[in-house]
Specification:
BRCT_dom_sf, globular, BRCT_dom, 4-stranded parallel beta sheet
């Protein structure tokens, strides 16, 4: 329809798709910046007639807004920007970031290289389509596409901190449909982290009665707490007792040219061995009193190097917690012992309720002959689950990945283990033993 095309052109847009309906999104090219986005006719009419001279193109609109916002940059941020864009970054910049919290805060706000932007929007279930600046200071607009509904929108990376803390998804279309923080939105936010809500309540601050969708362990927690990196399930994602001693580790992955910081409990080395198996070199490992303090040390380390993340295959498919990795050429260096020396008195996370600690009956067969059908859950005795499975296969046993009535024995880390396999073993009457007993009986 020529008259409708004229309305789009009056708004500075050239339609590249045919008009179908008044409420439908119509892909158009901005005549000023050349970027393609979809706009509804009603939206174009609203912007054309508001009398403020507001640009219809969201890239142009937010670009203009960003130019005004940059006037509030501190002198330190203005100085650091060009230095961070150098390759390599001058070593004195790394030294400054290591000793100056003010400098780290300015870099965290005003330095958004493409790798960091990709990593952040990945956590919000979006793909980066266009980054309009090579060295984005967080105020240059980017075009992102929602993986759930396909809607493309314009965002400013530097303004996404609130999104990370308050929502499971930054998509304006999804959040408009779900009314922002409604119960459906909150339930989906929990589901993306492996948690189930039987009776979700609205609000990101609301403490929910959740259960782990993987093992059934109960947990009382708010969506905002999960968005701020609290562990979803103490059994599947962390130590059984959050008040027990934990360790913070630092790994170097030469093949991927990056470092990784993370935390693990003191019960076994399975996570450390997994990183070694993926080519990692353990650089540092320090103990801390509890999980909350381990999170504090990890957060302080990441604050030093957040502007230099690494992304891409095959790392993102093989490494758990790949968003806690950074490029090895980052000018700031992480020293866990120095960070831990400044540990505040962080209150430990609340322990799980007593009913979550129902012991497993470790009544196991006296022998393990070749042909025995065995299943494993978790890991233990300093070996990964994959290593135990291979050892069992080498001993002539039949290894299965799930528990059924045909399973002879399920091997668990200890009597407090609570996973879906333990539940299945109880229901099927399958015998259960711990890894130490299995190693002794199997002669491994």
């Amino acid at each position: 329809m020529p008259c409708i095309d004229d309305i789009y052109r009056a708004g500075g847009l050239e339609p590249v798709e045919p008009f179908t309906a008044r409420g439908a999104h119509r892909r158009s090219r901005c005549l000023e910046c050349g970027h393609h986005l979809a706009y509804r006719l009603e939206y174009v009419l609203e912007k054309n007639g508001n009398g403020y001279g507001e640009k219809v193109c969201r890239v142009c609109f937010w670009g203009k807004w960003a130019r005004w916002e940059r006037q509030h940059k501190s002198e330190l941020a203005v100085t650091l920007g060009p230095l961070l864009a150098l390759d390599p970054v001058p070593p004195e910049v790394g030294e400054l970031l290591a000793v100056s919290p003010e400098a780290r805060a300015e870099v965290d706000r005003w330095w958004w290289p493409t790798e960091r932007t990709v990593a952040m929007f990945d956590l919000l279930h979006h793909d980066l389509v266009v980054d309009t600046a090579e060295h984005n200071d967080g105020m240059s607009p980017v075009i992102v596409r929602c993986r759930l509904c396909g809607y493309e929108s314009v965002q400013l990376p530097g303004r996404m901190g609130a999104e990370m803390q308050g929502r499971w998804c930054s998509c304006t279309s999804c959040n408009a449909r779900n009314k922002g923080a409604c119960a459906q939105d909150v339930a989906l936010g929990f589901a993306t982290r492996g948690m189930h809500l039987a009776n979700p309540e609205p609000g990101v601050e609301t403490v929910q009665e959740a259960t782990c969708a993987r093992c059934g362990t109960p947990r009382r927690v708010a969506l905002r707490q999960l968005n701020l990196d609290q562990v979803p399930c103490y059994v599947c994602d962390g130590a059984a007792d959050p008040q027990a001693e934990h360790r913070v580790y630092l790994f170097h992955f030469p093949a991927w040219e990056c470092f990784k910081v993370g935390i693990t409990n003191s019960g076994n080395d399975a996570r450390l061995l997994e990183h070694v198996r993926n080519g990692g070199e353990l650089i540092d490992l320090i103990p801390v009193p509890n999980r909350a303090q381990a999170h504090w040390v990890e957060a302080q380390a990441l604050a030093l190097v957040r502007p230099w993340p690494v992304t891409g295959e095959p790392m993102t498919r093989r490494i758990t917690g790949w968003t806690e990795m950074w490029h090895q050429d980052a000018p700031a260096r992480v020293d866990l012992a120095t960070i831990a020396a400044g540990l505040p008195s962080v209150a430990p996370l609340a322990a799980r309720p007593p009913e979550a600690y129902v012991p497993v009956d470790l009544a196991a067969p006296a022998t393990l002959a070749p042909g025995t059908t065995v299943c494993f859950t978790g890991a233990g005795a300093g070996r990964t689950r994959e290593q135990w499975q291979q050892d069992a296969t080498n001993a002539g046993m039949v290894v299965t990945k799930s528990v059924s009535a045909k399973t002879t024995v399920l091997v668990v880390p200890d009597a407090l283990t609570r996973t879906s396999k333990v539940v299945a073993a109880r229901n099927a009457g399958v015998s259960v033993m711990d890894y130490a007993t299995f190693a002794n009986l199997a002669g491994i």
